[in-house]
Specification:
Layout (H helix, E strand, L loop, with lengths): L1 E5 L5 E7 L2 H4 L5 H14 L59 H17 L3 E4 L11 H9 L8 E5 L4 H7 L5 E5 L5 H6 L2 E5 H7 L13
Parallel strand pairs: 1-3, 3-6, 4-5, 4-6
Antiparallel strand pairs: 1-2
Length: 218
C-alpha cells in the first residue's frame, strides 16, 4: 500500500512510503480487537471502591431487645444493614480488574485497527521536518496538522521516538494525542478519527527498512 508523504504546508512532496499489506490491508478480527480494548479499559480502573460492612461501621454491639416475647421482629445490634447508618450488604470491595491477553493476540488486534484506518483512508504521513522544532509552539504545530485538511475531530500523532518539543506543543490540544510508535495501543488507534505518522515512523513498518526483509509487527 502506497501512502503519499505531505510537507508541513499540506502539499504532496512527490515521495511515498510503501506500507506492508500484512499490517495495513489485513482482515480485522473483531473479537480480538474487542479483547484488546477491554483489557485496556479494565487496566484504567483503580479498583479502590469500598463500602463498610456491619462489622466495620460505628455503633454499639448491644442487642436492641430480647429475642422473644416482644411481639416484634428479632433484632441484633444497631449496625444491622436494615437500619440507617448500618453496614452495607454485599458492598463492593477493592480488587483488580486486570485481564490477561496474549502478546500475539494484542499484535493481531493492533494490525486489525491499523487496517481499518488504512481501508477508510484515515492515515496521513508527514515529512520529518514537522517535528524538527527548536522550541515548543502549539500554534505552529496545530497549523501544520490543520494544513492536512483531515476533516477529523481527533487525531493520533505518531512519532518514531519521544520528542519533548512536540509533546509540549500538543499537550493542551484536546483533539490531538501524541505518542511514540512503540506505545501505540489498539484503543488509541480506534479512539482516533485519523492517524498521522511521521515519515520516519511510517518507514519502520516498511519491509525495506528491516534487515532480512521481515515485516515489523504492529
Amino acid at each position: 500500500m502506497q501512502i503519499d508523504v505531505f510537507n508541513i504546508e499540506g502539499k504532496k512532496t512527490g515521495r511515498s512510503v510503501e506500507l506492508p499489506d500484512e499490517i495495513f490491508a489485513a482482515e480485522p478480527n473483531n473479537h480480538v480487537v474487542w479483547l484488546a480494548v477491554k483489557q485496556y479499559l479494565a487496566a484504567q480502573r483503580q479498583g479502590t471502591h469500598k463500602t463498610k460492612g456491619r462489622s466495620e461501621v460505628q455503633g454499639s454491639s448491644r442487642k436492641l431487645h430480647k429475642q422473644k416475647g416482644t411481639g416484634g421482629s428479632r433484632k441484633g445490634n444497631i449496625r444491622n444493614p436494615l437500619y440507617k447508618g448500618g453496614g452495607t450488604i454485599f458492598g463492593p470491595k477493592p480488587h483488580k480488574y486486570q485481564l490477561k491477553v496474549n502478546r500475539k493476540v494484542k499484535d493481531l488486534a493492533r494490525i486489525g485497527a491499523l487496517s481499518s484506518k488504512a481501508t477508510a483512508g484515515k492515515i496521513w504521513i508527514l515529512e520529518d521536518a514537522c517535528i524538527e522544532m527548536e522550541k515548543p509552539s502549539t500554534k505552529n504545530f496545530t497549523g501544520i496538522l490543520n494544513s492536512l485538511n483531515t476533516n477529523t475531530r481527533n487525531l493520533l500523532f505518531v512519532m518514531p521516538e519521544f520528542n519533548e518539543n512536540v509533546c509540549k506543543s500538543i499537550r493542551n490540544v484536546p483533539s490531538v494525542f501524541g505518542t511514540v510508535l512503540s506505545d501505540v495501543h489498539t484503543y488509541d488507534i480506534l479512539n482516533a478519527d485519523g492517524l498521522v505518522l511521521t515519515e520516519a515512523a511510517a518507514k519502520i513498518f516498511s519491509t525495506e527498512e528491516v534487515a532480512g526483509d521481515e515485516p515489523v509487527k504492529a
